[in-house]
Structures are given as structure tokens and as C-alpha cells.
Amino acid sequence: MALLITDKCINCDMCEPECPNGAISMGSEIFKIEPDLCTECKGHYDKPTCQSVCPISKCIITDPDNVETEDQLLEKFVVIQGMA
């Protein structure tokens, strides 16, 4: 599953530089996550770094509109990294 930044976001800019896939960018009002690039850090880290550095509890959640299995996330990681 890709992750989603909720409207609790305070635009602290902690998450964007931590994303190894470049999936996080500034939206019109708050940061956003590009689902096609989000692998929940599978292939890079044990858990999503954006969630780890976010100072707001439950600001970055699982995106219910982009449900993927761990295998699908790892496949996406391989494609993004150009290993396919």
C-alpha cells in the first residue's frame, strides 16, 4: 500500500528528504505522496522513514485507495531502482 499524508500535515519538511524514492513533494497546501513511487520503503528500510520522522501522530497513513501487497511493493521497488 502506498502511504498518504493527511490534512494534519504542518509542512515541517521532515518527510520529503527522507523518502528514498522521491515520492514526497509539496502539494498545493500540504506535502503529498505519489502512489506510483511509494513503496513504504520496502527494499530500503524496515519501516517507512517518513512516518518515523513525522512529528505529528497519524499524519502519514496507509492510503486506502492504493492497496498493494508486500510483494507488489517490492516489485515496484525493483522497477523504480531500474533493476528490472
TrEMBL record:
InterPro entries: 4Fe4S_Fe-S-bd, 4Fe4S_Fe_S_CS, PSI_iron-sulfur_center, YfhL-like. It comes from the Bacteria. It holds the Pfam family Fer4. Residues 1-29 form the 4Fe-4S ferredoxin-type domain. GO terms for cellular component: cytoplasm. This is Ferredoxin. NCBIfam families: di_4Fe-4S_YfhL. GO terms for molecular function: 4 iron, 4 sulfur cluster binding; metal ion binding. Keywords: 4Fe-4S, Electron transport, Iron, Iron-sulfur, Metal-binding, Repeat, Transport. It comes from Salinivibrio kushneri. The keyword Electron transport applies.
